[in-house]
Amino acid sequence: MIRAQTEKESKLHLMHVMSIVETMKENKDVQEQGYDWLIQIYEKMTAPRVTHRWEPTENCARVHIVVGDSFAGSMKNALRKLGREHSDTFICLRDHYAYGPLWHFHEKEGLLRRQEWLQNHIQSDDDDRDTIFRSNEQLAQQFDSIPPSASIYVWGANNAHEQSGLRYAIYMLRDKSNKIFVCDAVDAEQQLFHTPPPTQQWYTSGELNTEKLVPILELSQAYTPIDVEERLGLEQEWLVLAEDTGSLRVIQDGKVANVPADSYDAYLLQTVEQLHQQQEEYNFIKSARVIGQALSSAQQYVSDCYFEYRLRELIYAGKLEIKGIPRAMRYYSVRKPI
């Protein structure tokens, strides 16, 4: 049976399913991979909730720092299968670091500015938003609680969301003398299972299933910790990100880069046009369909929340017409002006 889920979890699973199905329809070469993704979503929806405190303790052997609830959930299940739920602990960075200002995010003033921006621009459930805000405020305390004897594994795949979070984590660990290991679960999967590189760059750690994460966790035990020079470099890269007041980040030339907020606007308009061409009669298109199509074809990982925000901005600018009320993507449709 499907366990009780929050609205945010249900929405995330639905958007993943829509994105995967669109990709499988357009590219038959990824159907087997898409099937694995759908199985993973099913496992997450049917897995029972297990209450267990994963925060760092003074006796823990390892601390895993991960970006995103989905990846954290899969990693916890993998650690249980390895019998390491008592030796390994977690810090989960729950915010989305690819969008919204990161200016002085590591300080209270920056946190408040980010909260204000998200409240003014991004559609989300108030309870979910407040939970993330509280989580951000508690991160400094969680980092401080890491014991000096624990090995620290910071996980991040090649997308702006996880790489920004990874740099933030390294900066927060700047006063720690612990051994720090930087891990990419997606890259490890390709090494272990000889899977071809993903056709799109939005592939994230959160899309790996538990079965694949078990050997990935075992492989990470053989990694070499990063040296002082690499740590300082990542810390400095975070400080550069944290001085920018922009609201969108992507991967450019292998690094996280701040780009204009409207960078995807032309792509969204093109997506609407493509969907219009599939219609027998020119009509409004559900915004959820536009966003799902855009997600499935995007060359980098982008949140549906950010695409929905930009869709509204295009409406306000008169570049799209609207039918309905833009309180959430399921409540309105759009079309290009006739």
UniProtKB/TrEMBL annotation:
This is DUF1835 domain-containing protein. It holds the Pfam family DUF1835. It comes from the Bacteria. InterPro entries: DUF1835, DUF3658. Residues 224-332 form the DUF3658 domain. Residues 63-182 form the DUF1835 domain.
